[in-house]
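Illustration 12: Malate dehydrogenase.
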Amino acid sequence: MKRPVRIAITGAAGSISHSLLFKIATGEMIGQDQPVILQLIEMPQAMEPLRGIAMELEDCAFPLLHSISLHDNFEEGVVGAHYVLLIGAKPRGPGMERSELIATNAPIFAHQGQAINKLANRDVKVLVVGNPANTNALIASRNAPDLSPAQFTALTRLDHNRTRGIMANHTGANPKDIRRVTVWGNHSSTQFPDLHHATIYGEPALPQIDQDWYRDTFIEKIQKRGSAIIDARGHSSAASAAQAIINHMHDWINGTPENDWVSMGIVSDGSYGIEKGIIYSFPVRCDYGRYQIVQGLEISEFAREKMTLSEQELLTEMETVKDLLPK
Ligand code: NAX
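Figure caption equivalent — predicted structure in token form:
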């Protein structure tokens, strides 16, 4: 049996974690041969519900769950972590502007970045889920100067999975036969779900669907899917977000399938003309625990306009938090 790895998770008593923790403990995230230590982190007022979740995990007697520790202090919770999932964030209150949400969460992620820099394993892989995920990941990464920016990612896999799932439903194909979709940009309503390079049953996807439907209905449906779920359910996506976290980490650690790629919010290296340094969702292939941006895709004028809009939004978000971004 392998030595256990440490996974630190914030927001561990929240809705997403309630689905996620049990999947991790069954080996879905890393592998069926990898024992895990869960280092669960919450706000002091949520420690009691967290204790309840820990009891339930224990009661499942998962063979891969080596041990669980509970923390109301981020520094303690992140010690030695090989993987850090930053899920907890202050939610958007009634009437709160996106810029206020960004400003409220920014100092928390700066602090968490500093603690990861000091206390986590040197090869740590960090995924930021708490919104605004891209900019929170940027802040955490810039506050961790001893680690590579490539170790910090933001979740856009839910948007990627939505693109595949909704396309599958629309065309009657199985989601596994829908490949090479890309979500570009920010995890927000400016994201661009791009089907220009996608395939269905190995053939180009766009000629198989109605162009007006793609441009006028589909793109907006993906961009606003989160709000549609809140309207219908009264709560934001939780189980599907947990599944996306599993997929993101699994593929980052174990590699992407042949003939396909995935979307990840990662630091831009200037590929496709996107401003260097921002955390932007790109198409990537993973291998041996590393990812690489898929290069050489042709970008139409239509796509470029949408990619730029999301880039501009991220640059504005970056400006809002510039005081928390050490050079
Ligand atoms: P919940 O409100 O159910 O749970 C959040 C939990 O985080 C709470 O238990 C809270 O006590 C804890 N928390 C808050 N600040 C913390 C901190 N500084 N340290 C430790 N714990 C902290 O939210 P949930 O539905 O689980 O969503 C969590 C976050 O994911 C939200 O910010 C949400 O906007 C974001 N999402 C991001 C998605 C993405 O694709 N990037 C999709 C799903 C989700 O909307």
